[in-house]
Protein: IL34 protein
Organism: Psilopogon haemacephalus
Amino acid sequence: AATPGECELSRLLQDKLQYEMRLRYMKHYFPIDYTVQVQYEEVLRPSNITRLRNGSVSEVALRYLWFHISSQAVLHIREVLPEKHPSWRYTQELAWLFDALGEEYSRYQQVRI
């Protein structure tokens, strides 16, 4: 089961990652044909999630996998984004939320051990 802290941070991330927000900050403010290089393993596809679910991977592990891949994607974007870019603050807020969620997962893992 998710902890209250994880639920609250997930809700905040869900609000920040709404389609309109992503469209505004990650599409309209980026140049046409601009890409960020990622490794194949860093792409979380629905078919992979289904395969993992069917292969007895726990929901906790799937949530952590989503967190890890998403936080790494934000870090990749921030590495190439100039501080004066209109999306800088948005990606900074996402990074803070992912950092807080990472701390929550760390506490959860320590309690389980």
Notes: The chain has a mean pLDDT of 83.
